[in-house]
Amino acid sequence: MLPMPPLTLRGVVCDPPLFCAPMASITHSAFRRLLADFGGVGAVFTEMLSAKTILVEDPERSPYLKRRPQEGKVFYQLLVTDTIRLDETLARLAPLRPDGLDLNLACAAPVVRQKRGGAALFDDPERLAAVLRVLRKGFAGPLTAKIRLGRDTDGWRLRLEERLRLLEGEGVDAVILHPRFFEEKFKRSARHALYAELSARTPLPIIACGDVLGPDYVRDRAALFAPAAGIMVGRMAAAAPWVFARWRDPGLKVDPAEVWRRLCRYIAEDFEPAPALARIKIVAPYFARNFAFGHSLFKALQSAPDLAAALRRSDEFLSAGPEPSLSVGLEGI
To answer: Rounded to 5 degrees, what are φ and ψ at 208?
Structure first.
């Protein structure tokens, strides 16, 4: 069990305070459906969604936007660059009844920075404040912001504290903190020791993320995670979608082969063949870590010319009864 109490944000109760992180091309409707099969998660986050692209998506049919009742609480993460038509984006999302909205201020990918979103928005306090005002005015539910430490230059602590003050002042309800600098991506270990320092600098609840591998990882670092109000798991959820259920049931038995077949089926049901193939290829390097020779599955899928071939190659690999891995790691991904 978690030592943390349920996290309540504007009346929305996340119990347990465990969250599935937004992951590009992974936390779509099909993957969230799989997570729901296992349970144990307090809320799931969509992949980062362009506020402008939402305007042309069909909320009821889009595999990025639609949600199933069994998914539980869903927070929609937004890539926002400015306030133009942002109120229309919120109106388009309204029928889906998001349990929360999350503003991405952490992504430093070149394509995102060129659009002036993610880390670029974090670096621009005036534009950030304007965006937050529109979001807060147009959405009554929980509003969170996913951030990193900023840039690894002199004065980063002061700049980070200034951003925290800005987020507090503009009505953000919680901060999801990945304690790495923008430039580091996933290099070097996440600085979990900073949660104590930063939680003392802001009244906002801090949701801890970055390198979280599961309940044992958090338990072994209990003192570091104690100041956090919640825990967010990212890439390990892609490798082991049952990771949240393991918090509740450490002895949970899972058949990875059956789970992989189920995920492929869910993806094929939600996406057209070409995008379905792309998403299977994206999640494959993570899930393949469940098998001792999972690299063979990964390689077979990456070279698959179409969805039918990918599904056939998956069946061939799994039908051979592959040996499970002794442990699932994320090194090299």
So the answer is: -85, 140
Classify burial at 95, counting beta carbons within 10 Å of its beta carbon; exposed 0-12, middle 13-18, buried 19 or more.
exposed
Q: In DSSP terms, which residues pair with 147 in a beta bridge?
A: 177
Q: Are 43 and 100 in contact (CB under 8 A)?
A: yes
Token digits of residue 97: 């009844």
Q: What is the pTM of this model?
A: 0.95
CATH code of 256-319, in short, is: 1.20.225
The torsion of the CA quartet 137, 140, 146, 152, rounded to 10 degrees, works out to 30
Please name the residues in contact with 265: beta carbons below 8 A apart, sequence gap of 6 or more.
none
Please report, for the chain, the start and end positions of each structural domain, with discontinuous segments joined by +: 8-248, 256-319
What is the rounded distance in angstroms from the CA atom of residue 47 to the CA atom of residue 275? 15
Q: Which amino acid is at 282?
A: I
User: Per the CATH hierarchy, to which homologous superfamily does domain 8-248 belong?
Assistant: Aldolase class I (3.20.20.70)
Contact criterion met (CB below 8 Å) for 161 and 201: yes
At which residue do the structure tokens 């290099």 appear? Answer: 187
pLDDT, tens digit (0-9, with 9 covering 90-100), for 120-163? 999 999 999 999 999 999 999 999 999 999 999 999 999 999 99
**pLDDT tens, residue by residue, 282-316:** 999 999 999 999 999 999 999 999 999 999 999 99
Q: Is the peptide bond before 16 cis (omega within 30 degrees of 0)?
A: yes
Q: Which residues pair with 45 in a beta bridge?
A: 75
Residue 45, phi then psi, degrees to nearest 5:
-110, 140
Helix or strand or coil: residue 147? strand
- Tokens 């499970």 belong to 324
Cα–Cα distance, 296 to 120 (Å, whole number): 39
Helices and strands (DSSP H and E) totals, the chain: 16, 11
3 state SS of 18: strand
